[in-house]
Amino acid sequence: MVEKSVNLEAKSEKKKSNDKDRAFSHDFQYSHDNPYHEKLEIFDHFVLRDDEGETYQNKWQAEVFNNQAPLEVEIGTGYGHFMIEHTQKHPHINFVGLDHRFKRSFHLAKKLAKLEHKNFRYLRARGERLGFLFGEDEVSKIYYFFPDPWPKKRHRKKRLFQKRFLDEAFRVLKPGGEILVKTDHDDYFSWMLDELKNEKRFKLELKTFDLHTEAPEHFLSSFVTKFEKIFLEKNVKIKALTLKSLK
Description:
Elements: H1 2-21, H2 35-39, E1 47-49, H3 60-65, E2 71-75, H4 81-89, E3 94-99, H5 102-112, E4 120-124, H6 130-133, E5 139-145, H7 163-172, E6 173-183, H8 186-195, E7 202-208, H9 211-214, H10 226-233, E8 239-245
Parallel strand pairs: 1-4, 2-3, 2-5, 3-4, 5-6
Antiparallel strand pairs: 6-8, 7-8
């Protein structure tokens, strides 16, 4: 009976580990049944769904954008406020925004289709697939703004910002490339700082618990997302990080 109990506990722990790492693995496959997945097909000239973007690993500049401009990536575009503003202000960059929400992706795609500058692609894809979407030294900047904090203790393993993500981010970033983060959530920010302990591959160039007060001239203070505006109106301080690759 004791042996059986031990085996069940071991299987349970293995399942938790598999759940945490599944989306990072080579054999991961998207699985869904959502009508907005098919609706997104009408925007296939700039929208890539599921693993379609993974076919362009190491080829984004040469085969997608047909130029050698810097490639920037936003994980979790949300309603697209930053993506829209940033790409239209900086038409000289190549920009890939990604999110895995279906309906929100469709409504954002309708807005993107109307923009003047077409220096972007949108992926309905997961952030854990970063290392399969982009090749080594292919990305200049990674933006990660106001992610789902998964506040319940049992769900924290779902948080993207963890060692496996940092491994993939370091690999795809160019030497001197950056990860830029903003969040309203105190616990997730503390989690991020814990994940960065003993991390030697990145230089922590900015760490602030009150971005707009402590670093008002920083790039991250120069724009306010929809979620950020709501938090600021409630006097919630914005936490931020900037990490520089030390390749």
